[in-house]
Design goal:
Layout: H1 8-12, H2 24-37, E1 43-46, E2 56-64, E3 70-78, E4 85-91, H3 106-109, E5 113-117, H4 153-168, E6 174-184, H5 186-198, E7 204-208, H6 215-221, H7 227-237, H8 242-250, H9 254-258, E8 265-270, H10 278-287, E9 293-298, H11 310-320
Parallel strand pairs: 4-5, 4-6, 6-7, 7-8, 8-9
Antiparallel strand pairs: 1-2, 2-3, 3-5
Domain Acetyl xylan esterase: 1-314
Binding site for substrate: 94
GO biological process, one term: polysaccharide metabolic process
């Protein structure tokens, strides 16, 4: 597979203008305040024995998300280790859910707690009952509620993801001062969003090949994947709905969240990525407000990024920042 975007020399300096939508901060302040106003307790049920695991404890968690609706998550911890443990809050890639706990054993093996957050409507355990305007005809989630930020699917999903950080404080054995956000593709975009909305409650964020960054660039340059849903939608509604659509999407753009995020950040980018073009990743990285920001470049990788070679990079990076568990 050839390079799918600009060369690395051009990408390093790629920092497109990214005007923030009017009322962006107030929109998110109001959205999160409304979600929190519904209250609701975090519930956790021990289910380790169902999965025949000997070194890991597993809890099936439900916490209140958008509109107070329950969001599913797995909480995994190394067995027999006293807390409080640093916790890696993990968000999932597009069209996937939390899956099974046996799919998420890396972080507990390294001594961390991990909260694996289901994606509403994408995972099987968290339905999406949210509003829609009836305009979506393209498959997937990108154009669901694209008539306005109030109705869009990602308003609900990002709210769920912020509420997952809220839930950490109610789960025993977790260190609320060492909350790390992680995820790849959509999960990486969600990690950026939560970092921008959660302030100093986040100790670090690790967005891998992040999706949901600079939607217009993504729609114009991605060769495959969910950005094409926007293209398909606008093909029939262009030109009169183009600006309206991107105005909506701007409220969920990782570039704007990056402009508000200050926690140490470890990005990754793949230069042969046909789904999340490298320029969209660098648009967010180069706008990131925190001074401690690093990007791992995988020059011959596609959307899989560094695959199995990436976790050792992340573990070492967290250790350098004092975020490794004390075992």
């Amino acid at each position: 597979m050839p390079l799918t975007d600009l060369g690395l020399d051009e990408l390093v300096g790629f920092r497109p203008e990214a005007p923030v939508p009017q009322g962006f901060d107030e929109f998110w302040r109001r959205t999160l305040a409304e979600a929190r106003s519904h209250g609701g307790a975090v519930k956790a049920e021990r289910v380790t024995e169902q999965y025949a695991l000997r070194t890991v404890e597993v809890d099936d968690v439900r916490f209140p998300g958008w509109n107070g609706e329950p969001v599913a998550a797995w909480l995994l911890r190394p067995r027999g280790v006293d807390g409080p443990l640093p916790v890696v809050v993990t968000y999932i890639g597009y069209s996937g859910g939390r899956g099974l706990p046996t799919e998420h054993l890396l972080w507990s093996a390294a001594g961390y707690a991990q909260l694996v957050v289901d994606s509403r409507g994408q995972g099987r355990d968290t339905p999406d009952r949210g509003e829609g305007d009836g305009t979506q005809w393209v498959e997937g989630f990108m154009t669901r509620g694209i008539d306005s930020p109030e109705n869009h699917y990602y308003r609900r999903l990002i709210t769920d993801c912020v509420r997952a950080v809220d839930a950490v404080a109610e789960l025993p054995g977790l260190d609320g001062d060492r909350v790390v956000l992680a995820g790849g593709s959509q999960g990486g975009g969600l990690a950026l969003a939560v970092a921008g909305l959660s302030g100093d409650r986040v100790a670090a964020t690790m967005p891998d090949v992040p999706f949901l960054c600079h939607f217009r660039q993504g729609a114009q340059t991605a060769l495959e994947g969910p950005y094409q849903e926007i293209v398909k939608y606008l093909r029939w509604h262009s030109p009169h709905r183009v600006e309206q659509a991107f105005d909506t999407l701007d409220h969920f753009d990782g570039v704007h969240f990056a402009q508000r995020a200050t926690a140490p950040a470890l990005f990754s980018v793949a230069l042969m990525d046909p789904i999340c073009p490298p320029r969209t990743v660098y648009a967010a990285f180069n706008h990131y407000a925190g001074e401690d920001r690093t990007v791992t470049v995988w020059p011959f990788a596609d959307h899989g990024g560094g695959c199995g070679a990436n976790p050792p990079v992340q573990l070492a990076w967290l250790r350098e920042r004092g975020l490794a568990p004390q075992l």
